[in-house]
Amino acid sequence: MGKINVAIIGVGNCASSLVQGIHKYREIPEGESIPGLMHPRIGDYEIGDINVVAAFDIDGQKVGKDLSEAIFAKPNNTIPFAEVPHMGVQVERGMTHDGIGKYVSDIVKKAPGSTADVTRILKERECDVVINYLPVGSEDATKWYIEQVLNAGCGFVNCIPVFVAREEYWQNRFKSRGLPVVGDDIKSQIGATITHRVLTRLFRDRGVTVDRTYQLNFGGNTDFLNMLERERLVSKKISKTNSVASQIDYDIGPGNIHIGPSDHVPWLDDRKWCYIRIEGHNFGGAPVNMELKLEVWDSPNSAGVVVDAIRCCKLAMDRGESGAVVGPSAYFMKSPPTQYSDDEARQMVEDFISQE
């Protein structure tokens, strides 16, 4: 089936890890497993078939640079794990709207010049799938970019907690154009939300009543700096809370579940530390309490999942499917159109992949 031409919106740490991973594993022998991917091949596509043809950002330290340089420009601070050769893909000036929060305004300075003709670029470069890596809270910017994506006729993978795939309005917009969308809000390979979901499900599967729970996260990247602005955090908290609460088959009560980013610690760079506590009771009302600390490099932790999401989105396009792609959205995302257990969602993806 050839390449999957991809465009990236937002050249931050997540874009850096994705691009590094594509180049690191591009020459892996056919069929060899890659950490973080469900399968070396999904449909007719391996990781080496992902071809980044366009990138958009507003940071003056990135716009105008080759993507191979921009992914390592400050304030990006994720772990470098691969050398990326000159790609011949210049970072274009994107649309700002609400993409710069007040706590990053001293770090990120807008590049001069006008916004690029995004629709034209996507069309000219025959882009198949567009990845949304905008900062948390970029509601208006995301909606603006979606209009360009729809006009250009591309599939869309929404990695941030702006609700698109789960909303009927946007589902219908993508359906009317015959285009697929996978979303919303990417889960990491082993991240805070997937870990919290699995442990919560374990409590319920073993008959333990969950009384209350929290998840506290902090890190050193600009995402956490952005989330100090609580107004930008509303959809993120909803996304993470609903993802975990969906694994409890009764209303735990809003006062008994707290999930969300807590603080920004600059020296952590792109590392994230997560603390989870679940309190419950079992037979006879005896208490059962669990505490866990998880430490990860935030951006590489989700990059492999995005590789799978890209390939599933392209597979949906090849088959003429449109609107929200339910199975991949349920397994790869925190806020899909419909929540399932992770076992159910994984099987749905396997069935989607094997479907003729």
Per-chain topology:
Blueprint (H helix, E strand, L loop, with lengths): L3 E6 L3 H12 L25 E8 L9 H4 L20 E3 L24 H7 L4 E4 L6 H14 L2 E4 L9 H9 L3 E3 L9 H14 L3 E11 L2 H5 L7 H12 L11 E8 L6 E11 L5 E11 L2 H19 L4 E2 L1 H7 L9 H13 L2
Parallel strand pairs: 1-2, 1-4, 2-3, 4-5, 5-6, 6-11, 7-8
Antiparallel strand pairs: 7-9, 9-10
Helix pairs in contact: 1-9, 3-4, 6-8, 10-11
Question: What do these coordinates show?
Answer:
The chain is an alpha/beta fold and 356 residues long. The chain is built from 11 helices and 11 strands. The chain has helices spanning 13-24, 67-70, 118-124, 139-152, 168-176, 192-205, 222-226, 234-245, 300-318, 326-332, 342-354; strands at residues 4-9, 50-57, 91-93, 129-132, 155-158, 180-182, 209-219, 257-264, 271-281, 287-297, 323-324. The strands form 2 sheets. It has a 7-stranded parallel beta sheet, with helices on both faces. A 4-stranded mixed beta sheet has the order 8-7-9-10. A hairpin with a 5-residue loop joins strand 9 and strand 10 (287-297). Helix 10 (326-332) crosses helix 11. The longest helix has 19 residues, at 300-318. It is globular.
Q: Strand share of the residues?
A: 15-25%
Number of strands: 11
What value does the Rg take, in angstroms? 20 Å
Low-confidence stretches: none
Question: Helicity range of the residues?
Answer: 25-40%
Distance between the amino and carboxyl termini = 15 Å
Number of helices: 11
Helix/strand structural class: alpha/beta
Globular, elongated, flat, extended or rod-shaped: what is the shape?
globular
Adjacency order of strands in the biggest sheet: 3-2-1-4-5-6-11
Let me know the average pLDDT: 95
For the biggest sheet, the summary is: 7 strands, parallel
Quaternary form: single chain
Name the helix and strand elements from N-terminus to C-terminus, one letter apiece: EHEHEHEHEHEHEHHEEEHEHH
